[in-house]
UniProtKB/TrEMBL annotation:
PANTHER family: TRANSCRIPTION TERMINATION FACTOR RHO. The keyword Protein transport does not apply. This is Transcription termination factor Rho. The keyword Hydrolase applies. Facilitates transcription termination by a mechanism that involves Rho binding to the nascent RNA, activation of Rho's RNA-dependent ATPase activity, and release of the mRNA from the DNA template.
Amino acid sequence: MTQEELKNKKITELYEIAESLGIPDYREKRKPGLIMAILEAEARQRPTEGSDGGVQVDGVLEILEEGFGFLRSPEYSYLPSSDDIYVSPSQIKRFGLRTGDTITGIARPPKNSERYFALLKIETINGTPLSEERPRIPFDALTPLYPQERIHLEIPEKNDLSMRVVDLFTPIGKGQRGLIVSPPRAGKTVLLQKIANSITTNHAEIKLIILLIDERPEEVTDMERSVQAEVISSTFDEVPERHVQVADMVLEKAKRLVENKHDVVILLDSITRLARAHNLVVPHSGRTLSGGLDSNALQKPKKFFGSARNIEEGGSLTIIATALIETGSRMDEVIFEEFKGTGNMELILDRRLADRRIFPAIDLQRSGTRKEELLLTEFELNRIWVLRKLLAELNPVEMMEFVLDKMRLTRHNKEFLESMSES
């Protein structure tokens, strides 16, 4: 039985398999550890010819300072565990492997004095068979461009007004660096879920990763059940070092996929909490900004956010991150001010709309996308400019109510824009 087949089974089914194989203390193991124990037991009982009992494995490579590495599991949010797969320095050097490479292959169970499974054979690197692997241009050497290919969020069958509004007023393209600016309880989590579901529905070619930093455990579970995508998390009860390590692994994985000309989207909630974690982890420089923020704390979060780009050679990395405001924390305001203007798309949520239960609670006047003419058709662009001029005299509440009332009368955005020209 393969690792993928075992992952699709319920924990109760895995318990039955473990009991039949005579695995001790199997009820004390988490699901990933139980899967590895089953694979090890099966490999020892039925070793395949010439493979020393090899089993099919996959994971994301993290290379340590000592030169060797481990395949980390997304089940553990790419953090170290006893179920990791050892990768030797000779394999890393021979195949030019780097941290973040997604690898599938054959591994053998640990021998008497060993603690980890060891990788015997590599089959694919970042989805490409080893026989087809070509030299890669490093991510930082690739040419960044403005987004030119649109990510369509509108799903006509669902008629979701939130996604229709975002699609018109703040269009998102492949390679977008977007900031969702939100006060507490303004609907940012629901908006992220809807964006994620729209991407998985309309763009099967996009690799979607949702990164939750310093969030509530129940919110992580809700996201995992609401979205058919990879959800990587580090909850608020974890140490800041873990937040940083998880974010670093996700970014490295995304970069390796982009180097192989894949389109990747990272939805980050939130960049404010990631910056807070870095503030606690970085060595203090002796220079402290307003709110207790160290002057060096934002270097790596900015590097993370700045990695979003459309690539001329092929592929793209899109990052849509949330930034918190009006939390009562001076540090959060400073973090937002530092990131304001660094993105090429800003979507501002307004608490006044949320208090009136008007969703999406978007301040249309302050929200927008740079170089939107590269993403919208000429017809759409002309109509949106006319609509923005018409709405300019209204306050945010009146503006959103007007747009939603008109959208409810139409089935999709094309019909909505055509109805404008008729009127």
